[in-house]
Write a structure and sequence with these properties.
The chain is built from seven helices and three strands. Strand 1, helix 5 and strand 2 form a beta-alpha-beta unit. The N and C termini lie far apart (about 65 Å). The longest helix is centred in the middle third of the chain and has 38 residues. The chain has about 200 residues and is mainly alpha-helical. Helix 2 packs across helix 3 and helix 2 runs antiparallel to helix 4.
Length: about 200
């Protein structure tokens, strides 16, 4: 039936969109730029139809309006039909620009989140490494924070390696040490007996 065909087409488009948005940033931007080509041609054809412009002029004007090029005036049309089409083209340009900004913003947000929750190598020297998580850890960190505040040591970052999720460790330490003097604590998820994990914290 037609309804089933529409659902199938919608599911296929959704799947394709999910695949595309899973690509790297440059690939997604390239897809958006490629999608601009048929959009420019369709918009140019509509503008040419209502304004009797030549193809070259219609395409150039459409491209300028879609990309909001400085100096491109979409309000100077003589006939109301071409004015309406020009404004619709400008609106489509705003929509595509919003998609592009959304894609870039989402990529930046995901990279920032990846850095915050990542488990990459720690590039520190002369730092203190603590392994494992237990009930004595928070009191120990508080004592270290006080010692640093009094100038008694621990001026370099404290690196914690434990078999806990990094995000959970960061949130727990931030909550428990909220009233303690400031101290830099870097967390990494791993095992104390694993040579690769120990190398990750530069132990």
């Amino acid at each position: 039936s037609r309804h089933a065909q529409r659902e199938m087409i919608g599911s296929n488009l959704t799947y394709i969109a999910q695949r595309v948005f899973g690509w790297p940033l440059y690939s997604k931007v390239f897809v958006i730029m490629c999608a601009m080509v048929p959009l420019v041609l369709i918009a140019a054809a509509a503008y040419k139809f209502v304004s009797d412009e030549e193809w070259g002029s219609a395409i150039s004007k459409t491209f300028f309006w879609l990309n909001d090029v400085p100096g491109a005036d979409s309000t100077g049309e003589e006939h109301w039909r071409s004015t309406v089409v020009a404004q619709l083209i400008v609106f489509c340009g705003m929509f595509t620009f919003a998609i592009l900004i959304g894609v870039v913003s989402d990529e930046i947000a995901s990279k920032v989140d990846e850095v915050k929750t990542g488990n990459s190598k720690v590039y520190e020297k002369n730092h203190t490494v603590i392994v494992n998580w237990n009930d004595q850890l928070i009191p120990l960190l508080k004592q270290m924070a006080v010692a640093k505040d009094e100038g008694s040591g621990f001026q370099r970052p404290i690196v914690l390696l434990a078999n806990k999720e990094k995000e959970w460790m960061d949130e727990t330490i931030a909550d428990e040490l909220a009233d303690a003097p400031p101290i830099t604590i870097v967390t990494r998820q791993g095992e104390a007996y694993n040579a690769e994990d120990l190398d990750r914290v530069n132990a």
